[in-house]
Amino acid sequence: MTGYTPAQAAAVTGLTLAAVHRAIDRQLIRPRIARSGPTPRRLLTKDQMIFLQLEAEGLQLLPLKTRREIAKLIRISPGTDRLAVRNGAALCIEVKPARRKLENQLRRLARLEQIVVSDPDIMRGAPVFKGSRIPVDLVADMLAQGATVDEILAGYPALDREKIGMAPLYMRAFPRRGRPRHRPWQDKKARGGRRFELNQLLAR
User: Model pTM?
Assistant: First the structure.
């Protein structure tokens, strides 16, 4: 992958999307602008993602100046395990655990791109689990509404626990743009019905 979008960064680090954009707007990190496609996109590097993982784990509580220094040190030495920063007193930042956690989440993100497909001929192009017609957003919605993994498996045996568990991550990392998915049963009037005035019903 050549870069990560702010939505993907939020999904894998646990930050809100607004927090990722604030880090960019405050120039804590400076993404590359990709101009391929109809609209330019901000793309983040892995070392910028490491900084955002540290932000999610409490770095955002430090003064802005200190956070800028930490972001700069990570950019210069992205493979370092520990950073020493002066913040009035000596401050030690453990980078290795955050990097390990991030790499695990990035592996899950890469796995998602293997098990989810989008084809205009299948469910109007909605992302579905590979080899099925089951939309990812349907599974994510069911989980959000309180359905258990076992209940979803009972209704959709083509799925497995891994796919079900990764549906919410996919929806956060790859939010859909544009109008909501078409649902043909919505906004349709009932057919064959007859209208009666209230006095007609009472006279019967």
Answer: 0.79
